[in-house]
Write a structure and sequence with these properties.
With about 260 residues, the chain is an alpha/beta fold. Helix content is about 45%, strand content about 15%.
């Protein structure tokens, strides 16, 4: 089974993908982790991807797609995988379908973990990581015993550059505008599953597994797709509609190099 886990930064899609990977015995492929691993190894894709990630912008399609397709083509993904953080643009979704079709495969389900934008900002801006062992913390939800130090190894805690407040808002604005198109794409295929991500981790997992087990009813075609926008310096109350997302310039929709315009 090839399943996509969709969700805004901070929605918990990585956590859920880790749990589902064990439950379903499928490899978990996280695009963000692949980029960071490539950067640490000074691989072909690492350094070009870092400049975009640091600004909260999407890595260009030509880099992302090549890396993901190379990973999917490995033997451990022959029976399926859980894709976390990919596709992020409509173009990526279409290319992924084409690549899988050439191998006689297809995406089975696209799971969207839905969380209010105010909660996402709070989750992301409070995240901290141990510089030594990468253990995650949160300044409010799971703080370390000693401020700034890891409970496990005593390493220094740091905030990722893409978790800083302004970058967080930029990431969310980009995500919401582009994800409308992706959700509409999978909705039309009858593959979209929406779950409430604003609840406990175990509750989210149970909702996902239940939906997959019962083949979940797809989203009704007449239901409008809308997302909140998180503008800098104001409450996140504006919304993107599907027609507004489609009207964005093509270089924004495809996730190519650009400045944030909304």
């Amino acid at each position: 089974m090839y399943t996509i886990i969709l969700g805004a930064p901070g929605a918990g899609k990585g956590t859920q993908a880790d749990i589902l990977s064990q439950e379903m015995n499928l490899p978990h492929i996280a695009s963000g982790d692949l980029f960071r691993q490539a950067l640490e190894a000074r691989a072909e894709f690492g350094l070009p991807a870092k400049s975009y990630m640091d600004k909260g912008e999407l890595v260009p399609d030509e880099i992302t797609i090549k890396m993901i397709l190379e990973k999917i083509d490995q033997s451990d993904c022959a029976s399926g995988c859980l894709l976390d953080g990919f596709p992020r643009t409509l173009h990526q979704a279409e290319v992924l379908d084409q690549a899988l079709e050439e191998q006689g495969k297809s995406i089975d389900k696209a799971i969207y973990i839905e969380v209010p934008s105010e909660e996402l900002v709070k989750r992301l801006s409070g995240r901290r990581l141990c510089r030594t062992c990468q253990t995650p913390y949160h300044t409010i939800n799971s703080p370390p015993k000693t401020p700034g130090r890891c409970d496990k190894c005593g390493g220094e805690l740091y905030q990722r550059s893409d978790d800083r407040d302004e970058t967080v808002k930029n990431r969310l604005n980009i995500f919401f505008a582009q994800t409308l198109l992706i959700l509409d794409y999978y909705k039309k295929q009858g593959k979209l599953i929406k779950v409430n991500g604003n609840q406990g981790i175990q509750d989210v997992t149970r909702e996902i597994l239940s939906a997959l087990k019962h083949q979940c009813q797809p989203e009704q075609s007449g239901e409008p797709l809308r997302f909140p926008s998180t503008g800098s310096g104001r409450a996140p109350v504006a919304e993107f509609t599907l027609s507004e997302a489609k009207a964005l310039p093509q270089n924004d929709i495809r996730g190519e190099h650009r400045q944030n315009k909304w």
